[in-house]
Specification:
By secondary structure, the protein is α/β, with parallel strands linked by helices. Helices cover about 40% and strands about 10% of the residues. Helix 2 (about 45-55) packs across helix 5 and helix 2 (about 45-55) crosses helix 6.
Amino acid sequence: MNVRRLIPTATLAGAVSLGLVALSACSSSDAADRTSGDKLAVTASFYPMQFLAQQIGGDHVSVTTLTKPGVEPHDLELKPRQTAELGEADVILYLKGIQPAVDKAIAQSGVGTVVDAATLTTLEKHGTEVGHAHGGDEHAGEEHGGEGEATTDGNDPHIWLDPVRYAEVAKGVGAALEKADPDNSADYRKNTDTLVGRLGGLDTAFKQGLTDTATKTFITTHAAFGYLAERYGLEQEAIAGIDPEAEPSPARVRELETIAKQDKVTTVFFETLASDKTARTIAADSGLKTDVLDPLEGITDKSKGDDYIEVMQSNLAALRKALGAK
């Protein structure tokens, strides 16, 4: 553990006033934690990593997230202050491939304990079902991967939307915290087991809730739900690719309209952090309903739940309704 974190609170406060101790990697919302001398300082890249750190770390950690609520994480650009403060963390949790600016800053941070969630489970390529056409040419239907899209060697980074893969990541994060702070290893292990159990319950709910449906196809804003679809036998059809701000080609829009008719799609899903304009236009042109399917890249006042578990339960309810679950 970083020795700075073991300085008693009163001593630390005095040292800060004298300018002898560097600030930890905290945003303004975490100012109260700057004097938590006995806590492990954990910096998370965005919400899915923040949730793991908070659930597993409990009272033993002070968690800062680089991506503020309401900010689309794919396009995050770090301020110089954030990049400098990143090096003050004891542990960094991130997911390589989804935030290029964060990947670069972490590589230069010099922090000893850096956990890349992408190494804790198996990543796969999803995208051929997206059918992202390029100007209506003969390449329609090929896997996307255009300039600016955040991918890891073409792999889909949205592993947290599969509760089973997310549980695998949780186990790896728990092990990393145990190693970084062995004095509290028993609590980290206990918290990890509790979280893995909750994720297992979520997996069971999705399996049971999506087994018998009128259709298996859903249309969503961007290709965030490939792992979820694969896990529960569904077919994801995304308007855009991995990048939620990418614009679909006219050919792709026509293709989605055809798929909606053939597969008895009832609903076009949009998100909380990305624009819903295209999704609503496609829905209106096709006579379909709209609803929210949250990729859980951040929690805001618009989120249908206060944390990962609650929002995933809301996603399940939305899918059941849209797919005509029995």
